[in-house]
């Protein structure tokens, strides 16, 4: 028997969730009222799904960890066929939920997110309630850090565990292999972020039924090359949102529109006008680096055409200067990405004061050697090297969600309507 496909609707807006479910319903077997939606709309969301999709199995992802009997009863009476609880709970709570599920006529899905003794717990749950789903789950925050669905699914299947569900980071490329071991495949973002929901759901369904891999546009970064590819795709605005509205460098912009730069920082600290260290850095930096210069945010210039030509010879990706540049007519012809605070005609003398490859402040933002530098028409942002995988994945998530919202706005709506802005204005005192 082929694995079923469940669509996870992790929205806070009920209308958006319903609309996307309607687009996908011909290709999915089950619909999940996601935890954010339940927290946003309560059991009304489950009732609405039950009413609008009478022929679909409805899962209420309650993520229950306490008061199990009450929450299972609530969800079941609202119309849920399956209720999701957390496997990290103690056995008394788990078994109480399983008993309540039998009493109220719904199945229980035990979400094994962050459960360390997964095999032991899965066996005890199956022994007590063979009908329960055991869900191997890689959480969204874990996915953002580049983690992938583990081999636990195959281990559970080979150990004789039945009714295995799997969730987290699933797309049409990896779902075919997972389908060999699972009863239920739970997919969210690879469908809900698509401009064409029906097409994406159809690809996933085909990959499950044929147990094959189909190329997907929805991937997560886990290597440096993948990080760079994502940073090429997303904007500095996307990255800022991903970093909780992180600050870009103050007053530093491309000297002409349309420039973009991505690379790891090679840093320079110097005095305004003293271009010796700036030029020396070109010999020290590696191909692919972005040279970032703290020149006190003042004139005279520390950079010009000859330094730019040298960078092109070395394969340097660009320069960011908290200070001044000159020769912009010539540099413009070279199409070399330069992001600067000031443009001037005069340079200073190469006295050699300063340091290379040290922590600096550029435009009010700290930059360390090896940090990722991304610049575009909106400005320049810094991503700490150790956070790059997570930030890249979160920025891509922002980009993909905005892409989906553009599609919904294009269907004669507005941002305020799609995102229910008025409803979600802050109510803090």
Automatic annotation (TrEMBL):
SUPFAM superfamilies: Ribulose-phoshate binding barrel, RraA-like
Phylogenetic classification of the source organism: unclassified sequences, metagenomes, ecological metagenomes
UniProt similarity note: Belongs to the HPS/KGPDC family. HPS subfamily.
A Pfam short name: RraA-like
CDD domains documented for this protein: KGPDC_HPS, RraA_family
Residue span, Orotidine 5'-phosphate decarboxylase domain: 4-204
An annotated GO BP: L-ascorbic acid catabolic process
UniProt GO molecular function: 3-dehydro-L-gulonate-6-phosphate decarboxylase activity; hexulose-6-phosphate synthase activity; orotidine-5'-phosphate decarboxylase activity
Keyword field: Carbohydrate metabolism, Lyase
NCBIfam families xref list: RuMP_HxlA
InterPro entries: 3-hexulose-6-phosphate_synth, Aldolase_TIM, Bifunct_HPS/DMK_prd, HPS/KGPDC, OMPdeCOase_dom, RibuloseP-bd_barrel, RraA/RraA-like, RraA/RraA-like_sf
Protein name as annotated: 3-hexulose-6-phosphate synthase
Catalysis: reaction(s): D-ribulose 5-phosphate + formaldehyde = D-arabino-hex-3-ulose 6-phosphate
EC number: 4.1.2.43
